[in-house]
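Note on ligand handling. Small-molecule inputs were canonicalized before submission; formal charges were left as drawn, and no protonation-state enumeration was performed. Where a ligand contained multiple stereocentres, the stereochemistry in the source SMILES was retained. For zinc ion, this procedure yielded the string shown in the input block below.
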Amino acid sequence: MEVELTKNEIIDMFHQLSKEHGLKITPQRTIIYQELLKTKYHPTADDIYKRIIKKIPNISFDTVNRTLLTFSKIGITNVVEGYGQPKRYDPDMETHHHFRCIQCNSIIDFHNKDFDNITVPEEINKQFTVINKKVVLEGLCSKCKRR
Ligand SMILES: [Zn+2]
Ligand SMILES: [Zn+2]
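Structure output:
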């Protein structure tokens, strides 16, 4: 996400996405989506849960987790490669790429036209159907580099 959206814009966007994907809009789902969009660096369900309980103190982790899974199942959120760790959620459905820090596991979005237009090797196209081309660069983020 490169543009900062206002709270109302996020809510409008969520309502439109829910309509398009046949998802029932509830206040809980709206708040979970809002937090997901506000949280940079591809949060886990646990990260989102910790933010949500400040707003809805009696919500269970299971509800948050199931809601995020629903978002990804109906296609309004992406699940980011997990590397054996908990699933990370990414509300940005536009083509974009990731930089992953191998030390602190931050996942940072970036955009690059050349990477968008990357050519899939012949032997991959023969065996598989590619539906998403995402480049993942790995290394040390600026915070970890300074340590
Ligand atoms: Zn780092
Ligand atoms: Zn992303």
